[in-house]
Amino acid sequence: MAVSSELPLVNPASPAQYARGYARRYRRTGIAAFVFLSVAALLFFLHRSGLESWRFRPSAESLKPAVAHIPETIWQIMLPKKPTPDQPTIEAGRLENTASWLALNPNYFYTLVDQKGGDDFIHQHFSHRPDIIETYTNMPNVGMKSDMLRYLLLSIEGGVYTDTDTIALQPIEKWIPSHIRNRTRAIVGIEYDRREGPAWADIPHVLQFCQWTIAAAPGHPVFDKMVNRIINSTKLLAEEHKVPLNQVKPESIEVMNSTGPAAWTDVVFEQLQELEPWIKELTDLSYMKEPTLYGDMLVLPIDGFGMGQPHSDSTNDGSIPPDALARHLFKGTWRGN
């Protein structure tokens, strides 16, 4: 019997805790280690330990949510381009910016998910969705697999996902203005806003949302839409290449349009239109100057997650603007697969 891609991500047999905004803690099988905030100690530990995953747990001094519906959890993903049994999947050098997230958010749980952790998570939570397991397992590009995994993690667990090549600039508890904290269930940032300028690189939209940093409450419907988009897009991609999905050698634009920021923009925009029917075009969100709540989704202007870029009126003069929350360094470790 075929499995519909419209089935919910959360197993119907699971408790309704996700709808109540409760994040069930995913407990990786393996070794958990205490981390020192010193980046030198962090890198030394990972280099010497050879662990397949790594989790930092704060003290229990404060477990009261600082961002209302969004759990106090930070997720990062590190998947190997070409995994081999005798090679550790964690590259210590790629974690040099992680200390910024730990230092600014000391009461947050932190989880670094590697290949085994991702596989375990997918099989644990999506046994009722063999289409998800099949698509994830056969992703031909490490970037595409990382994209899909971040949406699934946030759908089930909630929290903040951020790429390893990002730097935290402000504590997460300050990301949401206090007067809308109890109404916000997702945070997305603008990556690109063409305005009156020319098209930029291979960005297909006049305005695009980034997915190097996303925050959300568990069970947010935007992730249902995104995962179903990925399943359908990757099926079409395999058909166009006339090979099984795991044999596709995608171009950069194909990655962006199937799992990456171009696809994410389509889905986020669809969700925003459902929440606010007056939004007709992406350009209705252009020239944004301050964080704006649409329904339960908080949209950040360009400097929120996208400072330091040479377009979109992003602050790029060497200074850090007061509304910048995180910075992306654009190391693009997924490219060239």
TrEMBL record:
Membrane as UniProt keyword? yes
User: Its Gene Ontology molecular function terms?
Assistant: alpha-1,6-mannosyltransferase activity
Family, according to the entry, reads as follows: Belongs to the glycosyltransferase 32 family.
Query: What is the organism lineage in this UniProt record?
Result: Eukaryota, Fungi, Dikarya, Ascomycota, Pezizomycotina
Would you kindly state one Gene Ontology biological process term found in this protein's UniProt entry? protein N-linked glycosylation
Q: Keywords for this entry?
A: Membrane, Transmembrane, Transmembrane helix
Q: Which GO terms describe its cellular component?
A: mannan polymerase complex
Q: What organism is the protein native to?
A: Clonostachys byssicola
Q: Sorted alphabetically, which Gene3D superfamilies does this protein's record hold?
A: 3.90.550.20
Q: What's the protein here called?
A: Initiation-specific alpha-1,6-mannosyltransferase
Segments spanning the bilayer are 30-47
Do the record's keywords include RNA-binding?
no
